[in-house]
């Protein structure tokens, strides 16, 4: 009886191991993928405005209650998290601005988009990973999409001009048409498409403004036009569409009596600072001069009740932000609604982001529709790091090392449409956990097979 017992033990161990019960691969056709980001679209912007097209997308596909972006909740860092699956400290694009603590150079957002060494610092985004596995990709205005990575450029890319008008709805439709041509005429497999709204309007007028609500309606019209063009291009059955964003937006307390103003802190002086990165929303970095770290830290740590100042090594690990050589010895963030003013008050936005990613105003949207997605499904909130793994599964490519979980978003997919890296597909058990690879029907089938095996051995 010892041999059957050993066989039973081995069979049970195999069934209960992580990933056990994975179905046999079957060959399936690979679908195309379009990732669309509307910058600064807060998770609840569709609740005070009629958004029939976003609502239809939810009915026809998948909607998340909200998505939690990475910290720090800024445009370039959060967009790069989506295409790498990494927390910001691990992909290294730690700010919208390129900066150097040695040369003291600081570049604005648009100029930073073209600085290769800022983006190409060890992480390989999904465009390059897909191309290395035989696919063709495109990036239209998407942050990080117009530089080379390890010597490889995105197949097709567009970068906006420095004075680009992000609000032009006519141009939005032309951009959609261009992307459709990339799919149909140039046979691209993956495209990332970026729109700079409603972020710009939220900054200028505030997230509760009439102007923001009107811009959300423009976004919704664009989603409708996009889906019309997908149908007109005969891509409905072959293109998966994801609509999401990088972060939310909150109202700035511009007239508060307790503004965070460094130039008014009694025990602090900029003469102790070698390099500063302030006046960019609610977060900042400081490099004190040699021997003055403790002095500056002690002057700032309790300087303002809305300001949270840390030494780099003591920054909360849950943010996954500080453990990167680009981060300065002192870093900080302020409470929701409070921006940081440095030498003078130069920030005049009515809306801002960059706050704690646990604040609800920083949460953002996620919608998905297409041949691989379930219909009429609403899922619980999740972190944006998981979107990369989902996109790799949809494209059938092997992902790079990342911080996401490959099973986290699989319940969004139709049971027959969870693509495996070899281009085949896996049948996911109905009702199976997003994180645990188990299901009673699979287990019972495995036990039945074991019993048959034992009867033959006996």
Summarize the entry for a quick read.
With 458 residues, this protein is α/β, with parallel strands linked by helices. It has helices at residues 2-16, 52-60, 75-84, 88-91, 109-112, 116-119, 126-132, 169-184, 199-205, 210-232, 293-300, 387-395, 440-457, and strands spanning 26-27, 32-38, 62-64, 67-68, 98-99, 106-107, 137-140, 156-158, 190-195, 239-244, 250-251, 260-261, 273-277, 283-288, 307-311, 330-334, 340-341, 351-352, 366-369, 377-379, 382-383, 418-419, 424-426.
Structure write-up:
- It is a single-pass type I membrane protein.
- It is found in: Cell membrane.
- This is Ectonucleotide pyrophosphatase/phosphodiesterase family member 7.
- Its EC number is 3.1.4.12.
- With 458 residues, this protein is α/β, with parallel strands linked by helices.
- It has helices spanning 2-16, 52-60, 75-84, 88-91, 109-112, 116-119, 126-132, 169-184, 199-205, 210-232, 293-300, 387-395, 440-457; strands at residues 26-27, 32-38, 62-64, 67-68, 98-99, 106-107, 137-140, 156-158, 190-195, 239-244, 250-251, 260-261, 273-277, 283-288, 307-311, 330-334, 340-341, 351-352, 366-369, 377-379, 382-383, 418-419, 424-426.
- The chain has 2 domains: 28-100 and 108-250 and 358-425, Alkaline Phosphatase, subunit A; 260-348, 2-Layer Sandwich (Gyrase A, domain 2), CATH 3.30.1360.
- It is globular, with a radius of gyration of 24 Å.
- Helix 1 packs antiparallel against helix 13 (440-457) and helix 8 packs parallel to helix 10 (210-232).
- The termini are close together.
- The model is unreliable at 1-28 and 420-458 (pLDDT under 50).
């Amino acid at each position: 009886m010892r041999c059957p017992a050993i066989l039973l033990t081995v069979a049970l161990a195999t069934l209960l191991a992580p990933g056990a019960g994975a179905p046999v691969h079957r060959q399936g056709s690979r679908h195309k993928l379009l990732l669309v980001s509307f910058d600064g679209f807060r998770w609840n912007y569709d609740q005070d405005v009629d958004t029939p097209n976003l609502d239809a997308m939810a009915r026809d596909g998948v909607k998340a209650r909200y998505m939690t972006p990475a910290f720090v909740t800024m445009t370039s860092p959060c967009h790069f998290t989506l295409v790498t699956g990494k927390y910001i400290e691990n992909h290294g694009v730690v700010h919208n601005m390129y900066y150097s603590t040695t040369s003291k150079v600081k570049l604005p957002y648009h100029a930073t988009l073209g600085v290769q060494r800022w983006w190409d610092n060890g992480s390989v985004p999904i465009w390059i990973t897909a191309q290395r596995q035989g696919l063709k990709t495109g990036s239209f205005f998407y942050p990080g999409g117009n530089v080379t990575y390890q010597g490889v450029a995105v197949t097709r890319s567009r970068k906006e001009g420095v004075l680009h008008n992000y609000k032009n709805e006519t141009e939005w439709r032309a951009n959609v048409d261009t992307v459709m041509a990339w799919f149909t005429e140039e046979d691209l497999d993956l495209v990332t498409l970026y729109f700079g709204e409603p972020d710009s309007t939220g900054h200028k007028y505030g997230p509760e403004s009439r102007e923001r609500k009107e811009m959300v309606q423009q976004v919704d019209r664009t989603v409708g036009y996009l889906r019309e063009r997908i149908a007109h291009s005969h891509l409905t059955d072959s293109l998966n569409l994801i609509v999401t964003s990088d972060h939310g937006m909150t109202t700035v307390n511009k007239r508060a009596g307790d503004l965070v103003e460094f130039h008014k802190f009694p025990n602090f002086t900029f003469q102790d600072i070698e390099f500063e990165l302030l006046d960019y929303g609610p977060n900042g970095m400081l490099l004190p001069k040699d021997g003055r770290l403790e002095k500056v830290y002690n002057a700032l740590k309790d300087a303002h009740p809305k300001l949270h100042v840390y030494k780099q090594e003591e920054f909360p690990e849950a943010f996954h932000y500080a453990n990167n050589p680009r981060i300065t010895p002192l870093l900080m963030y302020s409470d929701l609604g409070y921006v940081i003013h440095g030498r003078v008050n130069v920030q005049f936005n009515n809306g801002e982001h960059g706050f704690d990613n646990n604040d609800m105003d920083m949460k953002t949207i996620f919608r998905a529709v297409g041949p691989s997605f379930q219909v009429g499904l609403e899922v619980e909130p999740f972190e944006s790091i998981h979107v990369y793994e989902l996109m790799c599964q949809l494209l059938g490519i092997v992902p790079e090392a990342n911080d996401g979980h490959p099973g986290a978003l699989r319940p969004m997919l139709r049971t027959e449409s969870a693509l495996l890296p070899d281009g085949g597909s896996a049948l996911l058990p109905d009702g199976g956990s997003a994180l645990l690879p188990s299901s009673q029907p699979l287990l019972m089938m495995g036990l039945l097979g074991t019993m048959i095996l034992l009867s033959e051995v006996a």
